[in-house]
Write a structure and sequence with these properties.
mainly alpha; two-stranded antiparallel sheet; 484 residues; 64% helix; globular
């Protein structure tokens, strides 16, 4: 047997047990504050626990050997199963949502995309709003674990470059094989920034509930807020707080931990972080100047909303502070340019990722030099080291697959009745896990509540594909995957 499905069931069991326990958190909140939503979360948690028990029984006779096929199929299956289970409270508690819309909402939360089909958020049960925040938080830490542990091992999408360049938590900054220690440290950091972000939001004027749910969305770079106003009614202090935590959460977690453990210069010396900061700073500076010159904003507001929205898009958080599609054409075009970039590898952000763009730029400049000097001995480099051919080819493969999926999804969206500009930008937004699109009907000031059920399913699959780096999911649907 090429794939030991019992082993996949064995891996799924503890994940489903944990998810079932997590589902009881909003159930406890509903019991204390909103008993009408209690049954939905009790049913969700119980179903997840029962499935976990069933998979545990199936996995008892699993073999001891794990393969990449098992890891890929486990990851894809887990994301799909959890997304389906997570949709139950939305479908059960919100009668105006179809199951396709509920599935879209759960996928948007778990993939930390942040777009929503739910309208009138201020009038919805608070337990549901808390559930959206929890889903983003789970999806954020889940992807960090995936990016740090599974993807580097598989060399998918060029992530293997970080297999030898990941940072341990001591001054040596070498790759650590102690995945348990790494996972615990990541979890502690993830909880710590959540607590810190919540504290600052309370300090800036949010009530405790809104502070916690917004912090869940911020540190996971998810973007789902518990109010219809997004961040437009937030204090200036809280807007600056969001900028800071969005940026931190879109930087490599292991690198941050290594810097905090005794070598703070590691963070500032890292090529990917410096490149990511440079992109944000230059684009936000250009947008801010255009707002001052063209839209007559005062200096402080211009740069505040510019940096907020630029970091929101590049970190793939998707918070809205004004509608940047209504600004001057120059500013709007810059946002279209950065829509798919994404943050850093090993963070909660989605998108193409900064390191891939840096590798492509290195390949581009090297090729230009070779055209001028055919006999020159020069190879593409990243972090001062020559990039191996496998990494180069995997980066190119990822980018090609991203473009192909984006093209196919755009064509399908158009055939389902969506305008071309909405189809293109919504597809890129979902694949990059950003949230807001830049179309006529789908833009930062609107939601996805009016799209059809088939479009909900299409964009849900796009979000899962983008979150799992596309290639591992596509492999699970090829014939070669199931052959020796």
């Amino acid at each position: 047997m090429v794939i030991d499905y019992r082993l996949i069931a064995k891996y799924l069991a503890p994940a489903l047990f944990l998810f079932g326990i997590v589902a009881y958190i909003p159930a406890i909140y509903a019991f204390c504050n909103d008993s009408l939503a209690l049954s939905a979360f009790l049913a969700t948690g119980t179903l997840s626990l029962v499935l976990g028990f069933i998979f545990k029984r199936i996995g008892k006779k699993a073999g001891p050997n794990t393969s990449l096929r098992v890891l890929f199929l486990f990851t894809t299956s887990l994301w799909l199963i959890i997304s389906l289970i997570a949709a139950i409270p939305f479908f059960y508690q919100l009668p105006d949502l179809s199951f396709s819309q509920a599935f879209y909402e759960s996928c948007s939360g778990l993939s930390t995309s942040g777009s929503t089909v739910i309208t009138h958020l201020d009038q919805r049960p608070r337990a549901i709003l808390l559930w959206r925040g929890i889903l983003q938080y789970i999806g954020g830490v889940g992807f960090v674990a995936l990016a740090v542990v599974i993807l580097p091992i598989s060399a998918m999408g060029g992530m293997s470059i970080f297999k030898t360049e990941s940072y341990s938590f001591d001054d040596s900054a070498k790759f650590t094989p102690h995945l348990k220690t790494m996972a615990i440290s990541l979890f502690v950091w993830y909880v710590a920034i959540l607590v810190l972000c919540s504290f600052f939001f309370v300090l800036g004027g949010f009530d405790l509930f809104r502070a916690i749910v917004t912090a869940l969305s911020t540190v996971s770079t998810g973007g789902m807020t518990p109010t219809d106003t997004q961040m437009n009614d937030a204090s200036v202090f809280n807007q600056y707080t969001a900028i800071g935590f969005m940026f931190i959460s879109s930087c490599p977690f292991l690198l941050i931990l290594a810097s905090l453990s005794g070598n703070p210069l590691l963070f500032f010396k890292d090529q990917q972080v410096r490149g990511y900061f440079f992109i944000n700073f230059i684009v936000a500076l250009a947008v801010g100047i255009s707002l001052i010159v063209v839209n007559q904003y005062d200096i402080e507001k211009a740069f505040r909303v510019a940096f907020f929205n630029v970091v929101s898009i590049t970190s793939t958080t998707g918070f809205s502070l004004e509608d940047f599609t209504l600004w001057n054409p120059f500013a709007s075009s810059l946002f279209l340019f950065i829509l798919a970039i994404g943050g850093c590898s090993g963070s909660t952000s989605g998108g193409i990722k900064t390191f891939r763009l840096q590798i492509c730029y290195s390949m581009f400049t090297t090729q230009l030099q070779k055209l001028l000097h055919p006999h020159i001995v020069n190879e593409p480099r990243f972090k001062g080291k020559i990039i191996d051919p496998d990494t180069l080819s995997s980066v190119i493969t990822y980018l090609v697959s991203y473009l192909l999926i984006a093209m196919v999804s755009t064509i399908i969206a158009c055939s389902l009745g969506l305008d071309l500009d909405d189809s293109i930008t919504a597809t890129i937004s979902c694949l990059s896990n950003i949230g807001p699109a830049m179309g006529t009907t789908l833009n930062p000031s609107t939601d996805y509540s009016n799209i059809s059920d088939p479009l909900c399913v299409l964009f849900s699959l796009d979000m899962i594909l983008g979150r799992l780096e596309i290639l591992p999911v596509l492999l699970c649907f090829t014939r070669m995957f199931y052959r020796r």
